[in-house]
Design goal:
It is built from three helices and 22 strands. The strands form four sheets. Strands 2-4-5-8-11-12-15-16 form an eight-stranded antiparallel sheet, with helices on one face. A seven-stranded mixed sheet has the order 3-6-7-9-10-13-14, with no helix packed on it. Strands 18-17-1-22-21 form a five-stranded antiparallel sheet. It has a domain of 142 residues: Jelly Rolls. It is globular, with a radius of gyration of 19 Å. It is α+β, with helices and mostly antiparallel strands.
Length: 295
Protein backbone atom coordinates (compact mmCIF):
# COMPACT_ATOMS: atom_id res chain seq x y z
CA UNK A 1 0.00 0.00 0.00
CA UNK A 2 2.82 2.39 0.88
CA UNK A 3 4.56 1.72 -2.42
CA UNK A 4 1.33 2.43 -4.31
CA UNK A 5 0.79 5.73 -2.51
CA UNK A 6 4.35 6.82 -3.20
CA UNK A 7 3.98 5.88 -6.86
CA UNK A 8 0.77 7.86 -7.20
CA UNK A 9 2.39 10.94 -5.72
CA UNK A 10 5.35 10.90 -8.11
CA UNK A 11 5.18 13.54 -10.79
CA UNK A 12 7.43 13.96 -13.79
CA UNK A 13 7.90 17.66 -14.42
CA UNK A 14 9.57 19.44 -17.29
CA UNK A 15 11.10 22.72 -16.24
CA UNK A 16 9.87 25.62 -18.36
CA UNK A 17 11.41 28.30 -16.15
CA UNK A 18 14.10 28.53 -13.49
CA UNK A 19 13.30 29.55 -9.94
CA UNK A 20 11.59 26.73 -8.04
CA UNK A 21 12.80 26.46 -4.44
CA UNK A 22 13.72 22.82 -3.88
CA UNK A 23 14.99 22.86 -0.30
CA UNK A 24 15.58 25.31 2.55
CA UNK A 25 17.61 24.77 5.70
CA UNK A 26 17.49 27.31 8.50
CA UNK A 27 16.35 30.90 8.01
CA UNK A 28 15.35 32.20 4.57
CA UNK A 29 12.68 34.40 3.00
CA UNK A 30 11.51 31.55 0.73
CA UNK A 31 10.00 28.12 1.30
CA UNK A 32 10.35 24.78 -0.46
CA UNK A 33 8.18 24.35 -3.61
CA UNK A 34 7.75 28.12 -3.90
CA UNK A 35 8.39 29.52 -7.37
CA UNK A 36 10.42 32.74 -7.21
CA UNK A 37 9.66 35.25 -9.97
CA UNK A 38 12.35 37.03 -11.92
CA UNK A 39 13.75 40.05 -10.07
CA UNK A 40 12.59 39.00 -6.58
CA UNK A 41 15.46 38.66 -4.07
CA UNK A 42 16.11 35.27 -2.45
CA UNK A 43 17.67 35.73 0.99
CA UNK A 44 19.12 33.47 3.65
CA UNK A 45 19.87 34.36 7.25
CA UNK A 46 22.41 33.09 9.79
CA UNK A 47 22.93 29.34 9.34
CA UNK A 48 20.46 29.48 6.45
CA UNK A 49 20.84 27.69 3.11
CA UNK A 50 18.58 27.52 0.07
CA UNK A 51 18.58 25.34 -3.06
CA UNK A 52 16.98 26.74 -6.23
CA UNK A 53 16.29 24.68 -9.36
CA UNK A 54 17.55 26.15 -12.64
CA UNK A 55 17.32 23.96 -15.75
CA UNK A 56 16.83 20.20 -15.10
CA UNK A 57 20.03 19.00 -13.44
CA UNK A 58 21.31 22.45 -12.40
CA UNK A 59 21.12 24.01 -8.95
CA UNK A 60 21.80 27.38 -7.37
CA UNK A 61 22.73 26.87 -3.72
CA UNK A 62 22.96 29.92 -1.45
CA UNK A 63 25.07 30.02 1.67
CA UNK A 64 24.14 31.77 4.90
CA UNK A 65 23.54 35.54 4.97
CA UNK A 66 23.33 35.65 1.19
CA UNK A 67 21.08 37.26 -1.42
CA UNK A 68 20.57 36.36 -5.08
CA UNK A 69 18.22 37.48 -7.83
CA UNK A 70 17.17 35.59 -10.94
CA UNK A 71 17.55 38.05 -13.83
CA UNK A 72 16.64 35.53 -16.53
CA UNK A 73 14.41 32.52 -15.96
CA UNK A 74 13.79 31.16 -19.47
CA UNK A 75 15.80 27.96 -19.97
CA UNK A 76 17.56 29.42 -23.03
CA UNK A 77 18.47 32.52 -21.04
CA UNK A 78 19.13 31.68 -17.38
CA UNK A 79 20.86 34.52 -15.54
CA UNK A 80 21.62 34.92 -11.82
CA UNK A 81 23.04 37.84 -9.85
CA UNK A 82 24.58 37.20 -6.43
CA UNK A 83 24.16 40.45 -4.51
CA UNK A 84 25.88 39.36 -1.32
CA UNK A 85 27.23 36.36 0.53
CA UNK A 86 28.23 33.07 -1.08
CA UNK A 87 26.77 30.64 -3.58
CA UNK A 88 27.59 27.44 -5.41
CA UNK A 89 26.23 26.56 -8.83
CA UNK A 90 26.05 22.91 -9.84
CA UNK A 91 25.60 23.29 -13.59
CA UNK A 92 24.43 20.77 -16.17
CA UNK A 93 23.54 21.17 -19.83
CA UNK A 94 24.84 24.68 -20.46
CA UNK A 95 27.15 25.44 -23.39
CA UNK A 96 28.50 28.35 -25.48
CA UNK A 97 25.22 28.71 -27.37
CA UNK A 98 23.11 28.68 -24.21
CA UNK A 99 25.34 29.53 -21.23
CA UNK A 100 24.36 30.20 -17.64
CA UNK A 101 25.17 33.84 -16.94
CA UNK A 102 26.32 34.67 -13.42
CA UNK A 103 27.30 37.98 -11.89
CA UNK A 104 28.69 38.86 -8.47
CA UNK A 105 29.60 42.48 -7.76
CA UNK A 106 31.68 43.58 -10.79
CA UNK A 107 32.28 40.01 -11.97
CA UNK A 108 30.30 38.66 -14.94
CA UNK A 109 30.88 35.19 -16.35
CA UNK A 110 29.23 32.67 -18.67
CA UNK A 111 29.21 29.04 -17.52
CA UNK A 112 29.58 26.85 -20.61
CA UNK A 113 30.18 23.36 -19.27
CA UNK A 114 28.86 20.95 -16.64
CA UNK A 115 30.63 21.77 -13.41
CA UNK A 116 30.68 23.20 -9.90
CA UNK A 117 31.35 26.90 -9.42
CA UNK A 118 31.81 28.72 -6.11
CA UNK A 119 31.04 32.46 -5.91
CA UNK A 120 32.14 34.77 -3.13
CA UNK A 121 33.11 38.44 -2.83
CA UNK A 122 33.22 39.10 -6.58
CA UNK A 123 35.31 36.04 -7.38
CA UNK A 124 34.41 32.65 -8.84
CA UNK A 125 36.41 29.51 -8.17
CA UNK A 126 36.02 26.73 -10.73
CA UNK A 127 35.86 23.49 -8.78
CA UNK A 128 34.92 21.66 -11.97
CA UNK A 129 33.90 22.92 -15.41
CA UNK A 130 34.63 25.79 -17.81
CA UNK A 131 33.55 29.40 -18.10
CA UNK A 132 34.07 32.51 -20.19
CA UNK A 133 34.38 36.17 -19.25
CA UNK A 134 32.51 38.43 -21.70
CA UNK A 135 34.99 40.24 -23.94
CA UNK A 136 37.72 37.73 -23.18
CA UNK A 137 38.32 34.74 -25.48
CA UNK A 138 40.13 32.76 -22.78
CA UNK A 139 38.28 29.70 -21.49
CA UNK A 140 38.98 29.23 -17.78
CA UNK A 141 38.92 25.67 -16.50
CA UNK A 142 39.07 23.61 -13.32
CA UNK A 143 41.35 25.02 -10.63
CA UNK A 144 41.17 28.66 -11.73
CA UNK A 145 39.80 31.58 -9.78
CA UNK A 146 38.52 34.55 -11.73
CA UNK A 147 37.81 38.10 -10.52
CA UNK A 148 37.06 41.30 -12.49
CA UNK A 149 40.75 42.23 -12.47
CA UNK A 150 42.66 38.95 -12.57
CA UNK A 151 42.64 35.19 -13.07
CA UNK A 152 44.92 32.85 -11.18
CA UNK A 153 45.37 29.21 -10.22
CA UNK A 154 43.57 28.83 -6.93
CA UNK A 155 45.29 27.05 -4.08
CA UNK A 156 43.43 24.18 -2.49
CA UNK A 157 42.12 25.09 0.92
CA UNK A 158 39.33 24.18 3.25
CA UNK A 159 35.87 24.19 1.74
CA UNK A 160 33.61 27.03 2.83
CA UNK A 161 30.25 26.09 4.43
CA UNK A 162 28.15 26.47 1.27
CA UNK A 163 30.57 24.24 -0.66
CA UNK A 164 30.26 21.50 1.95
CA UNK A 165 26.48 21.89 2.00
CA UNK A 166 26.27 21.81 -1.81
CA UNK A 167 28.29 18.62 -2.05
CA UNK A 168 26.12 16.94 0.58
CA UNK A 169 22.90 18.04 -1.15
CA UNK A 170 24.19 16.68 -4.45
CA UNK A 171 24.94 13.34 -2.79
CA UNK A 172 21.47 13.15 -1.23
CA UNK A 173 19.75 13.95 -4.53
CA UNK A 174 21.76 11.26 -6.29
CA UNK A 175 20.77 8.75 -3.59
CA UNK A 176 17.12 9.77 -4.00
CA UNK A 177 17.46 9.20 -7.74
CA UNK A 178 18.73 5.66 -7.17
CA UNK A 179 16.11 4.84 -4.53
CA UNK A 180 13.15 6.14 -6.51
CA UNK A 181 13.99 3.99 -9.54
CA UNK A 182 12.78 0.89 -7.68
CA UNK A 183 9.31 2.44 -7.30
CA UNK A 184 9.13 3.85 -10.83
CA UNK A 185 9.16 0.48 -12.57
CA UNK A 186 5.97 -0.44 -10.68
CA UNK A 187 4.04 2.53 -12.08
CA UNK A 188 2.50 3.11 -15.48
CA UNK A 189 4.55 6.23 -16.16
CA UNK A 190 6.32 6.23 -19.55
CA UNK A 191 10.07 6.58 -20.12
CA UNK A 192 11.55 9.98 -20.81
CA UNK A 193 14.07 10.82 -23.50
CA UNK A 194 14.67 14.24 -21.94
CA UNK A 195 15.84 15.56 -18.59
CA UNK A 196 13.12 16.05 -15.97
CA UNK A 197 12.61 16.76 -12.31
CA UNK A 198 10.71 14.14 -10.34
CA UNK A 199 8.96 14.88 -7.06
CA UNK A 200 9.88 12.35 -4.39
CA UNK A 201 7.52 12.58 -1.39
CA UNK A 202 9.76 10.45 0.81
CA UNK A 203 12.69 12.79 0.05
CA UNK A 204 10.56 15.90 0.38
CA UNK A 205 12.04 17.50 -2.71
CA UNK A 206 12.57 17.07 -6.43
CA UNK A 207 15.29 14.75 -7.63
CA UNK A 208 16.91 14.92 -11.05
CA UNK A 209 15.96 12.30 -13.65
CA UNK A 210 18.20 12.55 -16.73
CA UNK A 211 17.15 11.36 -20.16
CA UNK A 212 20.14 9.04 -20.06
CA UNK A 213 22.38 7.70 -17.33
CA UNK A 214 24.44 10.63 -16.10
CA UNK A 215 27.44 11.40 -13.91
CA UNK A 216 27.14 14.70 -12.06
CA UNK A 217 30.02 17.20 -11.79
CA UNK A 218 30.50 15.91 -8.24
CA UNK A 219 30.95 12.40 -9.64
CA UNK A 220 27.64 10.91 -8.50
CA UNK A 221 25.85 8.50 -10.86
CA UNK A 222 22.25 9.13 -11.87
CA UNK A 223 19.93 6.47 -13.27
CA UNK A 224 17.50 7.45 -16.03
CA UNK A 225 13.80 6.67 -16.28
CA UNK A 226 14.06 5.25 -19.81
CA UNK A 227 16.91 2.98 -18.72
CA UNK A 228 14.70 1.40 -16.08
CA UNK A 229 11.78 0.79 -18.41
CA UNK A 230 13.90 -0.54 -21.27
CA UNK A 231 15.69 -2.86 -18.88
CA UNK A 232 12.37 -4.10 -17.49
CA UNK A 233 11.09 -4.71 -21.02
CA UNK A 234 7.93 -2.74 -20.29
CA UNK A 235 8.29 -0.17 -23.08
CA UNK A 236 6.16 -0.57 -26.18
CA UNK A 237 6.64 1.08 -29.56
CA UNK A 238 3.92 3.62 -28.80
CA UNK A 239 3.55 4.81 -25.23
CA UNK A 240 1.07 7.49 -24.25
CA UNK A 241 1.45 9.70 -21.23
CA UNK A 242 -0.62 12.14 -19.29
CA UNK A 243 0.39 15.02 -17.15
CA UNK A 244 -0.90 18.26 -15.78
CA UNK A 245 -1.06 21.98 -15.84
CA UNK A 246 1.86 24.23 -15.11
CA UNK A 247 2.78 24.90 -11.51
CA UNK A 248 5.09 27.80 -10.81
CA UNK A 249 6.88 27.44 -14.14
CA UNK A 250 6.91 23.65 -14.10
CA UNK A 251 4.57 21.35 -16.02
CA UNK A 252 3.87 17.68 -15.51
CA UNK A 253 5.10 15.41 -18.27
CA UNK A 254 3.73 11.95 -17.85
CA UNK A 255 2.89 10.95 -14.33
CA UNK A 256 1.40 7.71 -13.21
CA UNK A 257 -1.14 9.48 -11.02
CA UNK A 258 -1.80 12.70 -9.18
CA UNK A 259 -0.10 14.57 -6.41
CA UNK A 260 -1.30 16.79 -3.62
CA UNK A 261 0.21 19.27 -1.26
CA UNK A 262 0.76 22.93 -0.56
CA UNK A 263 3.26 25.55 -1.57
CA UNK A 264 5.19 25.40 1.67
CA UNK A 265 8.21 23.31 2.58
CA UNK A 266 7.82 19.62 1.90
CA UNK A 267 4.50 19.89 0.07
CA UNK A 268 3.99 18.21 -3.31
CA UNK A 269 2.77 20.12 -6.37
CA UNK A 270 -0.96 20.49 -6.93
CA UNK A 271 -2.96 17.73 -8.61
CA UNK A 272 -2.59 17.51 -12.37
CA UNK A 273 -5.16 17.93 -15.12
CA UNK A 274 -4.99 15.70 -18.22
CA UNK A 275 -2.70 16.54 -21.12
CA UNK A 276 -2.86 15.24 -24.71
CA UNK A 277 -1.23 11.86 -25.27
CA UNK A 278 2.19 11.80 -26.87
CA UNK A 279 4.18 8.98 -28.45
CA UNK A 280 7.77 8.01 -27.78
CA UNK A 281 10.11 8.35 -30.74
CA UNK A 282 11.46 4.98 -31.89
CA UNK A 283 15.02 6.28 -31.78
CA UNK A 284 16.21 8.46 -28.88
CA UNK A 285 18.11 11.68 -29.66
CA UNK A 286 21.83 11.91 -29.06
CA UNK A 287 22.84 12.44 -25.45
CA UNK A 288 23.82 15.96 -24.56
CA UNK A 289 27.24 16.81 -23.11
CA UNK A 290 27.69 15.38 -19.66
CA UNK A 291 25.39 12.45 -20.31
CA UNK A 292 25.79 9.07 -21.93
CA UNK A 293 23.39 6.40 -22.97
CA UNK A 294 23.09 3.17 -21.09
CA UNK A 295 25.38 0.57 -22.80
Amino acid sequence: MTTLLVALMMQYVVSTKAGLVNYVQGRANVKATQSVPMGVPIRTGPEGFAEILLNPGSFLRLGENSEAVLEGIELVNVSVRLNSGTAVVEASGFDKEAPLEMSNKDLKVKIIKDGVYSFSDGTVRIIEGQLLVPGNKTIYKKGWAVSPTEAYKASKGELIPVELWSRNRSRLIAVANENIIHSLHRTSAPPSWFDVWLWDPSFGAFTFMPGYRYRSPYGYQYRSVQETYVTAGSVGSNVSNSGGSSNGGFSNAGSGGSSSGGATGGGAPAAASPQPSVSRSPDPPAARPGQRAQP
